């Protein structure tokens, strides 16, 4: 791969992580991950998937949560066994 190809790829993608959240000041981000996951689905239920602020919750949980957790929670939501309320 040439240098020009590398530059083209890097200009296509912007990598970001979740910003600082004062509710979660410690380095363990498990609760921050779970809160953003539940906040996303509450937001979607209240405002719809196209509501821009909802997308921030999704970006945050995708950045913070292990993929295995997301897959497990998605399965639990589908089965009606998710351990938290997702009502707005």
Automatic annotation (TrEMBL):
GO terms for biological process: mitochondrial electron transport, cytochrome c to oxygen. The keyword Disulfide bond applies. The keyword Iron does not apply. InterPro entries: COX6B-like (IPR048280), CX6/COA6-like_sf (IPR036549), Cyt_c_oxidase_su6B (IPR003213). GO terms for cellular component: mitochondrion; respiratory chain complex IV. Keywords: Disulfide bond, Mitochondrion. It is found in: Mitochondrion. SUPFAM superfamilies: Cytochrome c oxidase subunit h (SSF47694). Coiled coil: none annotated. Disulfide bonds join 33-65, 43-54. Pathway: Energy metabolism; oxidative phosphorylation. It comes from the Eukaryota. Component of the cytochrome c oxidase, the last enzyme in the mitochondrial electron transport chain which drives oxidative phosphorylation. Belongs to the cytochrome c oxidase subunit 6B family. This is Cytochrome c oxidase subunit.
